[in-house]
Write a structure and sequence with these properties.
The chain is mostly helical. Helix content is about 75%, strand content about 0%. The chain contains 23 helices and no strands. Helix 5 (about 60-80) packs antiparallel against helix 14 (about 240-255), helix 10 (about 140-155) runs parallel beside helix 23 (about 415-440) and helix 16 (about 280-310) runs antiparallel to helix 22 (about 395-405). The radius of gyration is 22 Å and the shape is globular. It is a multi-pass membrane protein. It is found in: Cell membrane. Keywords: Cell membrane, Membrane, Transmembrane, Transmembrane helix.
Length: about 450
């Protein structure tokens, strides 16, 4: 037990959680936790920071793509297209709290599957709806859970969009480390923990935990209703059509080249050519995009650096070695311990995609020794990645909802996005994941 407490990975992750709950800036939390983890492993501070800085390159493409998508989001907002959509939603859903949250969850579910734009839609669509949410006294924590569920749960168990990439990643790494697995078989391992478990968590959040009305101050949100007043309310015009064309082009180009950066660049240029905003406003649009969503990019860069430091400490191997005797007791105990180990890794990195190779390298040889089936092993890898990802303060699954729900400064990232995700998603994922991986 003492060896586990002294483990640098455990120390850094616990420190990260504590500092986040104390509302220290997440970017600073990741840097401090990395330094403490490195020191705990006996690494010099300068070496730790070198590893951290080099590791930031791991998420550089994602970070750049988010900045470009943020600029597109600002451009679309300035055309008033999202205001037209939000006005329509307000007419339909005014006073219909549960239906509104259900539709938000449905829209969010498209972002990782049919229309894989990830969290880019959240800072565009949600802010214009804040006034209506305030009038209906909707607890934004319920909406945060709906956004997180839609952005994560579907692709965890459906091999579509990001889900196809995620499932292929699990199957490919399992095969690489000696346990052959087909991509189209992974959904069988994830349907119960992610499909049923997370849905139960969402229902608990909306119908029980965050059901009561919550009051918010009426604060003017800059740009939330911009566009329509100047262009004519609910009337599609040339700028709106250009924005739609840019969004579709971003999606198509991303699929063709498998690159959000190229897709975002093309979409941004189309917006300039079609007159969504003037060429002279390009710098301002990009700067506004950085201001709106760039903070997510910097946190993801820091999370990638944190991940590299964790690997360099060799604390993961030591954690598995210390747990070896416990793992041999029973499959249920082994599954619980392995998922917790995976949780500590993914909690800090904030990405299930980036940690699947690490988890596979640890889990596959051990699962083969313990007698797990291929589906059981796939469930372990997928659930361990998901449990940490849905409730990490550095995950875009929690960062995205905050970017949309906090335009007026009344939605705290840790207490209103991250903690609710921990409460309603991590427990059912963990419990059902333990059972599923042990019995498959």
């Amino acid at each position: 037990m003492l060896d586990i407490i002294r483990n640098p990975v455990v120390i850094s992750v616990i420190l990260m959680c504590v500092l986040c709950l104390l509302k220290l800036n997440v970017l600073l939390v990741l840097i401090i936790s990395s330094m403490v983890g490195g020191i705990a492993a006996g690494m010099p501070i300068d070496q730790t920071m070198t590893i951290f800085m080099n590791g930031m390159a791991g998420n550089s493409e994602t970070a750049l793509s988010y900045i470009l998508l943020g600029a597109i989001a600002v451009g679309i907002a300035r055309t008033g297209l999202m205001s037209i959509l939000s006005d329509g939603m307000q007419r339909v859903f005014e006073g219909k709290k549960l239906l509104f949250i259900a539709v938000i969850a449905g829209i969010s579910s498209l972002s990782g599957t049919i229309i894989p734009v990830n969290i880019a839609f959240m800072p565009i669509l949600i802010p214009p709806l804040i006034y209506m949410m305030n009038r209906m006294k909707i607890d934004r924590r319920a909406v945060a859970c709906a956004l997180c569920w839609g952005n994560r749960a579907p692709y965890l168990f459906l091999p579509v969009g990001y889900g196809l990439i995620f499932h292929h990643l699990i199957a490919g790494n399992m095969t690489k480390y000696g346990m052959p697995m087909e991509t189209m078989e992974i959904w069988k391992a994830m349907i119960f923990p992610a499909g049923i478990g997370m849905l139960l968590g969402l229902l608990f959040a909306v119908l029980v935990l965050y059901r009561k009305p919550r009051e918010y101050k009426e604060i003017i949100i800059a740009g939330a209703d911009a566009g329509n007043k100047a262009e004519g309310k609910n009337v599609l015009n040339r700028r709106h059509i250009g924005a739609i064309l840019a969004a579709l082009s971003t999606f198509i180009i991303q699929l063709i080249f498998n690159s959000l950066v190229i897709g975002g660049l093309v979409g941004l240029l189309i917006m300039v050519v079609t007159g969504c905003f003037k060429y002279s406003e390009l710098d301002e649009t990009i700067n506004s995009g950085i201001a709106m969503i760039g903070w997510i990019s910097f946190i993801m860069l820091a999370a990638s650096g944190f991940s590299e430091v964790i690997v360099a400490t060799h604390g993961i191997e030591n954690l598995v070695a210390v747990s070896a005797n416990v793992l041999s007791a029973s499959k249920f105990i082994a599954s619980a311990v392995l998922i917790l180990i995976g949780f500590t890794i993914v909690m800090g990195t904030g990405t299930c995609f980036g940690t699947v190779p690490i988890l596979s390298a640890i889990y596959v040889p051990m699962c083969m020794t313990l007698g797990y089936t291929a589906l059981g092993t796939a469930s372990l890898i997928g659930v361990a990645a998901a449990v940490g990802d849905v409730c990490s303060p550095a995950s875009d699954g929690t960062l995205g909802p905050t970017s949309g729900l906090n335009p007026d400064g009344q939605h705290d990232h840790i207490w209103d996005s991250t903690v609710p995700a921990v409460l309603v998603f991590s427990l059912p994922l963990f419990v059902i994941g333990v059972v599923t991986s042990a019995v498959l």
